[in-house]
Design goal:
The complex is a heterodimer of chains A (112) and B (112). Chain A is built from no helices and eleven strands. With 112 residues, chain A is mostly beta strands. Chain B has no helices and nine strands. Classes of the chains: A mainly beta (112), B mainly beta (112).
Chain lengths: 112, 112
């Protein structure tokens, strides 16, 4: 069964910390994504990557950066965490030839 | 990219058929319609996809009229475990598929 694995289910960080959220997929998918989900706002795309070392901004990239050094791994970086980045973060991947996103289980990040 | 409009929430009872309609007036010729389901504390998962007329799988049916400006997800004989948020997505299979707008979806509440 295909899998997208996010390194942490729950995370608590302090304001100003640099935070790394890791995502690994085992399906050899070209495309990987980071979303955040907040009540009433649905899923919002932060960044995506369509190849190793390639990245593109989504709808809300401010305050975030990403890294994709290997095809299977896509990292989301909060350069200096703030309380308004408290959210559920979802990683997803898809191959370039179909419509199906495969999502991870999410990381619930709390910034205090 | 075609924006979609769905009801914010719906209530149903166990054993009933549920129909969730999605409007996508600006759908393009190459766009497909895809539906996802999300349970609390999990990432969305693919349910069904179609281009025109009717598609059926073991989980749901998707009805798409000739003008394709809307679509209806039909869940037969729902159970309590179908309580979830359902997202309608519209887009083509190309590069722009990476910028899908998930929106807030429709929260389906199934009652006993």
């Amino acid at each position: 069964d295909v899998k997208v694995t996010q390194s942490s289910r729950y995370l608590v960080k302090r304001t100003g910390e640099k935070v790394f959220l890791e995502c690994v997929q085992d399906m050899d998918h070209e495309n990987m994504f980071w979303y955040r989900q907040d009540p009433g706002l649905g899923l919002r795309l932060i960044y995506f990557s369509y190849d190793v070392k390639m990245k593109e901004k989504g709808d809300i990239p401010e305050g975030y950066s990403v890294s994709r050094e290997k095809k299977e791994r896509f990292s989301l970086i909060l350069e200096s965490a703030s309380t308004n980045q408290t959210s559920m973060y979802l990683c997803a991947s898809r191959t370039g030839t179909n419509y199906g996103y495969t999502f991870g289980s999410g990381t619930r990040l709390t910034v205090v | 990219l075609a924006k979609t409009t769905q009801p914010i929430s719906m209530d149903s009872y166990e054993g009933q058929e549920v129909n969730i309609t999605c409007s996508h007036n600006n759908i393009a010729t190459n766009d497909y319609i895809t539906w996802y389901q999300q349970f609390p504390s999990q990432g969305p998962r693919f349910i069904i996809q179609g281009y025109k007329t009717k598609v059926t799988n073991e989980v749901a049916s998707l009805f798409i009229p000739a003008d394709r400006k809307s679509s209806t997800l039909s869940l037969p004989r729902v159970s309590l475990s179908d309580t979830a948020v359902y997202y309608c997505l519209v887009g083509d299979m190309g590069y722009n598929f990476n910028k899908f707008y998930f929106g807030s979806g429709t929260k389906l509440n199934v009652k006993p």
